[in-house]
Amino acid sequence: MRFYLLLPLAVSFLPMVAIADDCEVSISAGDSMSFNTRTMDIPMSCEQFTVNFEHTGRLPKGGMGHNWVMTQSSDVQEVVKAGTAAGLANNYLPADDSRVVAATPMLGGGEKASVTFETSSLNANSSYTFFCSFPGHSAMMRGSVNLVE
Ligand SMILES: [Cu+2]
């Protein structure tokens, strides 16, 4: 009797767990100019999406800092340029820039940070890119964002 009562609960709970797992991703970078992935998926079924970013290296953020930034692909170049001008104190990102969909702070070795954003701000017909805005890094440190169902 207990079995029959518990089964529907278990079945209905599983999809919720699966959705929650899909609504975040973990990305890292070490003491070289590369992320551990060149691509990431954002399910549009997620209301919010979280990126957990970790600098797994040892070098300080002034020398080999990394962040995770997402913009439309066509905005990467200009945001990197504006970020370089903004300097390390501003995480190498222009302040309150609407082109930046989401970004973590600039991290040094051993640090981690997460950022959560609303997927309603994304346009399914646009192309998005993630990158590191530390000067000179975005040429190597970039990847494509796939908006999936
Ligand atoms: Cu970097």
From TrEMBL:
GO terms for cellular component: periplasmic space. Residues 22-147 form the Blue (type 1) copper domain. It is found in: Periplasm. Transfers electrons from cytochrome c551 to cytochrome oxidase. GO terms for molecular function: copper ion binding; electron transfer activity. Residues 1-20 form the signal peptide. It comes from Methylophaga muralis. It comes from the Bacteria. InterPro entries: Azurin, BlueCu_1, Cu-binding_ET, Cupredoxin. This is Azurin. The lineage of its organism: Bacteria, Pseudomonadati, Pseudomonadota, Gammaproteobacteria, Thiotrichales. The keyword Electron transport applies. It holds the Pfam family Copper-bind. Its main location: periplasm. Keywords: Copper, Electron transport, Metal-binding, Periplasm, Signal, Transport.
